[in-house]
Every structure is written in structure tokens, then in C-alpha cells.
Amino acid sequence: MKKQLSPQNMDAFWMPFTANRDFKQNPRLIASAQGHHYISNDGRKIYDGFSGLWTSGIGHCHPKIVEAVRQQVGEMDLCMGFQLGHSHAFTLADKLTDMAPQGFEHAFFTNSGSESVDTALKIALAYHRARGDASRTRLIGRQRGYHGVNFGGISVGGIAPNRKMFSANLINGVDHLPHTHNLEQAAFSRGQPQWGGHLADELESLVALHDASTIAAVIVEPVAGSTGILPPPVSYLERLRELCTQHGILLIFDEVITAFGRVGASFAAERFDVKPDLITTAKGLTNGVIPMGAVLATDHIYQSFMQGPEQSIEFFHGYTYSGHPVATAAGLATLEVYEQEGSFQQARELEDLFADAIHQFDDHPMVIDVRNIGLMGAIELAPREGAPGARGLEAHKQCFWNENLVIRNAMDILQFSPFLNAKPDDIAQMFDSVRAVLDRID
Ligand SMILES: Cc1ncc(COP(=O)(O)O)c(C=O)c1O
Fold it and tell me: Looking at ligand 1, which atom is closest to the CA of residue 145?
């Protein structure tokens, strides 16, 4: 018999990135998902304004992906991934590198964004060492950056609550660029802020301090996502690329959110026309259906590993489930659907409408900033005095209970990540609901 869920027996599941005690008092439970909607446990049809967790750009339970997974799991559930291979993993790597900006010819598979980040950092460190440049060990992240939750990721990441518990154990030799958010200079920017490109020059200060010969890599999200959507200022990424090249530093774009259509192109590197040396992905690689990530590397980086005796392992790294057959089947089906349905172009065509809709909040008395790029957007609320985050969480809950809408809040920043194939009327309705909520809360 199915056990009835109640707050008393919900304690066993220690929920990730959730206020467990608050949630369990009045849990927001989802029973199923289809297309652009969830069905809640109490039977309501709820619009998903966040595309899963930035994951499900072409909608939930896409029939072609579901079918591919169904078939694969009955045909080959698992193949030992070290020393054996299966053709889907090779085919997916081919398709993925074809979709990537020119020059990315190799893919290393992982199971999540966090693993992709730590894998990319290790590739960067090992690359320099393989080339006899072993003094390049320093990693540079950015304040407010989010690179997952593993030790490498939180070390280069720049979000204090994710770091402070572990501050004595973060990896050595990490420094941070300043973040690019500035309410005085760039609030209510539409797309890339005009102000802030000069902040990339801060890399020069870090080079002056540490010397370029000690720096292995710079890692940034092309658009900072989880911290509350900070689009890159005009010319910022170009300047970072220029400085990294000048100083022999690898540039890593963490595209766990921005890849696969979120900014109206296959990758943000393509949209902004700035080519990094390594790209991390996850989420949209399988439309969120099966956990999977990948690190994309240029041929130059890959070849620098392919040295030494042929019988020896070139890179001592990998996960049991790297290139898992069911995940690769989901990935192949997803990339095919992106192509067949023109998903990235669909997203591109929705951008202006989304920007118009979200910037209707520019003059709302509770709002201190509105930001957008591609199909990523944020409305930043003024915090309640003495209770930062309370207003944002209340807005999220009211959307769920009273408006049948899922949005995400990071403290007082409401975040939006519509489907790549969202219907214009649904985007309009979503923001009508948000306005109703903001008009109601104090
Ligand atoms: C830029 C970025 N990197 C890494 C991650 C971590 O991904 P995961 O939660 O799959 O480990 C995320 C998750 O949102 C992300 O946005």
C-alpha cells in the first residue's frame, strides 16, 4: 500500500538547497509533469516558469526522449565504462562537438554540472603539467559565480553561503575576479549592460599579484545564473579572452545553464562570439531527463594529453557512469529534437517578447532591478527590513499556491527561465500572475 506522505514522515529525505523545516510544514509536492506543466499532488495544473531547474527547455516528458530512454534501458542498461565502450557514447560525443563552436572536438562525459566543473578544472591543471608548465596551478573564479557544489566548484565559486562552512578546506591557490553587478550604474539594463566591461581588466591586477606563470585557468559563467542572472557587460567576455590569451591562461566557460538554447544559440560562446578553451555543460544535454554532463575541449588540449606510452591511461579521471548508455540515449534524442524542432531559433524569436514582458516591472515600487538576456531573466525585489530573502520566498510560495505557477527565488531575486518553445500567451500570463502576487505581498 502506498504510504501517505505527511510532515511527520518526510524527515528521511534531506532536501537539497531547500529550507527543509519550512518546506515540510506545507510541502509543495509534484505528482507528474507533461509539456509545460506540472500536476501537483493536490491535482492542480501548474505552469513551469523555470523549465525544470534550467534543464527542460523543450518541455517535460518529450515523447521522443522518453521513447529513446525506454528502448535503451531494455536493450543495454549499463556497459562498463572504463576499458569498454558502446557506440552511443561515441555518437553523442560526435553530435555534441558538431553542435559546439568550431574547434571543440572532444567531449568528456560526467553526470552533473558540478562534476563537469571539477573535471574541467582538473583538465586545465593537468594540461599545463603535461606541457611542462607545472607551476601554473592557480585557478581564478569570480565573485557571485556558481560552479556547483563539489570542492573545486565551491572554491572557484563566489557565493558566500556555499563556501563559509568549508572555508578552511577550500582548495588552495584560488583567487576571484569581482562580479559585474552594479545597481547604480546598470540597474534595469535590457540585455548586456553598457557599464562594466572594464571589470575584466581586474585580471591584470591578479596577474600582477601572482604572476601569469602561476595561473592555470579562469572560470566564469558567460551569464552568471544562480546568483540571480547577471548578463556580461558589453565587451567584458572579449576582454577576458584577450587577457587570458596574452598570459597563456586557459579560459573556461561554465555553460551548465547557458548551453542548448538558453541564450538563443547552441552555446553562449557562439552567441557572444567569444571562444573559450574548455566548456562545461549538463542540464539541457538530456533536457534534464537523465542526469548527464560533459566537458568540451579543443583538439589542442586533448592532444597535449595524448602523449607517452600508448598502453598507459592519459588522464586519471572518470566516473562509473561517464557515458552511461541510458543517459547517452537521452542525450542523442535531445540533440536530435533540438535540430528537428529548431529549438534554439525558437528561443531566439521569443527573446524580445520575454524582455518586454519582464521589463514591465521596471517601475514597480517593490522592484530594484530587472535583468534579462536570452530566455533568462530576474526581477530583484527590495528586501524586507531585517528579513532578507523573506519577500522572495513568499513570492515563490504565493505563485505556487495561488497562481499555479512555479518560479524560483534566490533570496529576493525572482528568476525566470521559460521554455525554449514557450507560448507567448503563457509568458504574458506568467508575468500577470507575478504582478498579482507582488501587488498582494508587503
Ligand atoms: C553554472 C553552473 N555550474 C554548475 C552547476 C552545478 O550543476 P549540478 O547541480 O548539476 O551539479 C550549476 C547548477 O545550476 C550551474 O548553474
Answer: 1
Best residue for ligand 1 mutational test, from 17, 257, 263, 415 (most atoms within 8 Å of Cβ): 257
Compute the distance from residue 283 Cα to the ligand 1 centre, in Å. Answer: 8
Q: Is the CB of 221 under 6 A from ligand 1?
A: yes
268-321: pLDDT as tens digits? 999 999 999 999 999 999 999 999 999 999 999 999 999 999 999 999 999 999
The domains located in the chain, with CATH, are 7-62+343-440 (3.90.1150.10), 65-341 (3.40.640.10)
The count of other CB atoms within 10 Å of the CB of residue 71 is 12
Integer Cα distance of 349 and 319 in angstroms: 38
pLDDT at residue 9 in the model: 79
The sheet with strand 45-48 has its strands ordered as 30-34, 37-40, 45-48, 405-406
Residue type, 86: H
Q: Does ligand 1 lie within 6 Å of residue 254's CB atom?
A: yes
Contact by Cβ (8 Å): 214, 138: yes
pLDDT > 90 in the chain, percent: 98
Name the band, by pLDDT with cuts 50, 70 and 90, for residue 144: very high
Give the three cell numbers for residue 318: 572518470
Q: Which of 382, 390, 380 is nearest to 358 (CA)?
A: 380
C-alpha 63: how far from its chain's center? 24
